Amino acid sequence: MTSTQDDHSGLIDADALRARLTALTEATDGEGSDPKVRNAVLGELKTAVRDARKIAEDKLADDGGGLLCAQRLSFIQDEIIRVIYDFALYHIYRIKNPSAAERMSVVAVGGYGRGTLAPGSDIDLLFVLPYKQTPWGEQIVEYILYMLWDLGFKVGHATRNIDECIRLSKTDMTIRTAILEARHIWGDEDLFENLVARFQKEVVEGTSSEFIAAKLQERDERHRRQGTSRYLVEPNIKEGKGGLRDLNTLFWIAKYHYQVSSQSELVKIGVLKRAERTRFRRAEDFLWAVRCHLHFLTGRPEERLSFDVQREIAVRLGYTQHPGMKDVERFMKHYFLIAKEVGDLTRILCAALEDEHVKDPRGRGISGIMRRFRVGRSDNTAPQPVKGAPGFVVENNRLSVTADTIFETDPVNLLRVFQLADKYDYNMHPRLTRLIRHSLKLINNDVRKDPEANRLFLSVLTSRNHPEKILRKMNETGVLGRFVPEFGKVVAMMQFNMYHHYTVDEHLIRSIGVLAEIERGDSGEDHPLSTDLIRTLQNRKLLYVTMFLHDIAKGRPEDHSIAGAKVARKLCPRFGLNDAETETVAWLIEHHLDMSTIAQSRDLSDRRTITDFAHTVQSHERLKLLLILTVADIRAVGPGVFNGWKGQLLRTLYYATEPHLTGGHSKMSHGQAITQAKEELVSRLGHWTDKDRKAYLNRHYPAYWLRTEPDRLETHAELLHKADKNGEQLSFDVTPRAFEGVTELTILAQDHPRLLSVIAGACYSTGANIVDAQIDTTTDGFALDTIFIGRELPGDDDERRRGERITALIERTLRGDEQIPEPVAKKGSVRGRMKAFKVASEVLLNNTLSDDYTVLEVSGLDRPGLLYDLTRSIATLNLNIGSAHISTFGEKVVDVFYVTDLTGQKIANIGRQEIIRERLSAAVEGQVELDPAAPVARKVRRQAS
């Protein structure tokens, strides 16, 4: 990279531009007020701006200097403003003998005042006057502003005299911050120097605590709006945690408090070490490069690094693909490491500030500093030694050390310090945090193998207090990645998909936090079963170790579950686990996705599904561990990913599998189970006649009685009974299920292969998202389909009305009164963020997963209308659907259909299987082959034994 003191040569020739503008006035005797002249002047300026910014973009591509690019763009803007000012002064509003009041200083403030601009940045200007506004000053300001607006710039501006600037700075922190970074562009320089001198004397002096408190509070509020984690996978590079605004805030505080004008001065006065200043500069340069590329790429002031631009930015910055990691993932890992650097620099500066202030016992981290600056100095308390931990002291509930050599003397103290913080709920003194970071090289293989170090780490990991808090601190200081190098490989690693909301390391730490919540009983509403089961575990330690390691092998060419099991077999003995414990952890990691996958994409009423899963799990204790692990894993993915419906599916799978692992599965045969289900239903239908009850029990095949819950059996019975009494062949029921987060639609209709397609089309056209479907057929030729759609409205009454609108559309369509609109998403028309992803479509046929059905698993890029297209294609293939299971993982959808041919047989013919794959693969791409002449055939269900 070239020097930041770039001469900006070749960007714009202001003198030549002035000469061209002056030449345009010759036809009007040197006057530039003619509208034709103004238009010509505007044209010249537009050309100059366009050409100069193109050169700046090309230079960015060549040298990669983000800060240089921002400085070049600022220089271009300066020159344009100077040229416009001079043209207005000498050719539009020239005065021969200006009075003392007819002076003006054009000043850049805010980000522009720092001499940096992004391509889409606002231009913040302050027009400084000596006294009150004059007609001449008003005309000059107006001409400059209108010309800048016509050039397409967004300009923030104010016109004030010096007294007004000082007065407003005292009461408005935004104005004070803007003037703090004021920079003279053009005009009367004495005015500007006077403003700076008075601002320093009358506003800044003696008010540093007030300013720091305000800036930190402002920062915390901004983080709250943007998302409190710096590891969100679509970060805001300007306003987000670890972004440019955080660096700006750091420098505002340093400039205000230490009265410096550059980062190098902070090194001279000892606030930053030279290496830390280099880190500051490196972070700033990288963030500016990303921001400038983002603005150039989108053509607008876009600050969010969304999925649809991440890959292109990665290519622009020169990242390449490595085994196990895409180019975009390597770029985003670098981004998150830089965001982490910004957090480190924040703590370093705050530690330096604390050295100048007496500690407040209420203080907790940076927010504590903010309080101290608000309330002023408070009484200090003497440091107290920590019992049983020589060299450690606690001061105002903050852990510190008596000597900076404590880690050199015993490197295991780098683990002990976190165990003490966890055990006694201490906060870390900022100076201690800084010392830990500077001591990381002491963590070598000897420390990693040390039994005491591993005991201390396991104590933190399995703590009954708040392990997430301490693990995050270990990660922020770098200790976690040094002590467990395998974890270090996933620090700041993002996965380029819409499913995961956080980086891998943040997800792992959050999952530990979720696990601790479950154990404390703080999340019983979300999944009460996991809360109950965790209290019955024989060895809770296994759960926490598994949770910490379950995704630790992400980013490798090998499947991360299999690779993770290998990592566990290596690490667990080091952590102090015995052979049996190690094997259990390894098994859990290798199978940590199984329960989620089966629950969401398999027919849980199919006995083969349960027996196969039970065979894999083998023990009841493993089943309990796997359920809790699955719940915590999904909940830690991001807000809203875990919901009541997924919880219900997991509970159903657990309860169906449990008897197979406890010896209870043989207590009742199929015939006995069917008889019991019928008897329970009859007991609920006491208001029916004996004749009606007997007739109804013969209307269903055995499989229906085995897989349908008692409450749903009753709902179905009442629906069919009412339809019979009213002579109806089409009937509906809508049942909102608040706890599961779904609404259940039951449809009774004459059976035909296109019924599910019509239902899917109606749901698609109304914006409803189908999450599951159970398809049943009565012995007299009626379809009884149960469809579960995602809940959208908070109130049951509103949600019921929404469901009734959908069933009304289904009814009109089946009666021929209305047609389902064609899906808008055809091949190549995927919209929005989805365009950033490439998901290969895949269709798998399996005849071993069910005794009665062929299982079709269709995966691909999600889009509106996909389920509609798939069900239409399945209908044209003359396949009967027994059940459908719809799972969405961010941009990827996995739809599973249990199907037979029209005679109720599995699809065994190889040629027909290939046709099915081709048709459904085409349907994923939006290419649906419809056959209007296809026969409407009844579904025939094989009677399950």
TrEMBL record:
Q: State its Enzyme Commission number(s).
A: 2.7.7.59, 3.1.4.-
How is this chain's activity regulated?
Uridylyltransferase (UTase) activity is inhibited by glutamine, while glutamine activates uridylyl-removing (UR) activity.
Which top-rank group of organisms is this from? Answer: Bacteria
Gene Ontology biological process: regulation of nitrogen utilization
Q: Which SUPFAM superfamilies match?
A: ACT-like, Nucleotidyltransferase, Nucleotidyltransferase substrate binding subunit/domain, Poly A polymerase C-terminal region-like
Tell me which family the UniProt entry assigns to this protein: Belongs to the GlnD family.
The text the record gives for the protein's domains is: Has four distinct domains: an N-terminal nucleotidyltransferase (NT) domain responsible for UTase activity, a central HD domain that encodes UR activity, and two C-terminal ACT domains that seem to have a role in glutamine sensing.
Q: Could you identify this protein by its name?
A: Bifunctional uridylyltransferase/uridylyl-removing enzyme
Phylogenetic placement of the source organism: Bacteria, Pseudomonadati, Pseudomonadota, Alphaproteobacteria, Hyphomicrobiales
Gene name per UniProt = glnD
